[in-house]
Amino acid sequence: MPENLLKGKLGIITGALDENSIAWKAALKAHEQGAKFVLTNAPIAMRMGAIKELAEHCNTIIIPADATSLEDIEKLYAESKEYLGGNFDFLLHSIGMSPNIRKGRSYGDLNYDWVNKSYDVSAISFHKMMHIAEKMDIMNEWGSILGLSYIAAQRVYPFYTDMADAKALLESIARGYGYRYGKLKKVRVNTISQSPTKTTAGTGIGGFDAFYNFAESMSPLGNASAEACADYIITMFSDLTRYVTMQNLFHDGGYSTTGISEELMEQFRDL
User: Which residues does the annotation say bind NAD(+) (predicted)?
Assistant: First the structure.
């Protein structure tokens, strides 16, 4: 990747938990490419991770914020602008959780209070972040806003339950706000639909290892790593992708458009 692809750009990266997370790797690469940014996560998530180490490496600060709280987002943006010295060129929404999945509730036996929590954290917070950014006029023209999605927004994966619905909502919000923000300030809004990735959140889903191996055998290029996704994020934050907006961008080694692989056909040939 060219050096200083993000030189002079300012932004916020949410959701970095530990060295396995996509947001963590994106922060490292953004720092390498010359960006200046603030890290943020929910206070409870910060207690679980090692984000302070990341902040020290990237020579930045951490501002705790609950992305479901409008007041917290306003405070995050105001303090980040003061620290960074200007408006933002990029925002990364790398936030998602499902109490139903954590507690093993099946799709036919969801706790609806938890469903609302899943939607609020995983998708509606994306809308809230853009709503407050627009309200505060905090994004620069030609800025880039990204959310992280998953193919379960389009296809059925029984283990993904209400998170699949949340990701579908996330992608819809990216289209709706992408149109609005493009007309207002030429800000582009996209989602990246990543391969199953061995992050702390990903491996917490039941049956993850089996599906990871399945996707690996289906994808002609193999599963995309978290580090490769971070490279893609940096490209989407750069000026090289100025006219890409309102898209759900599959970053999955070709899995999303492969019907069946030769490896899987071989497994079932003699059954």
Answer: 15, 21-22, 95, 167
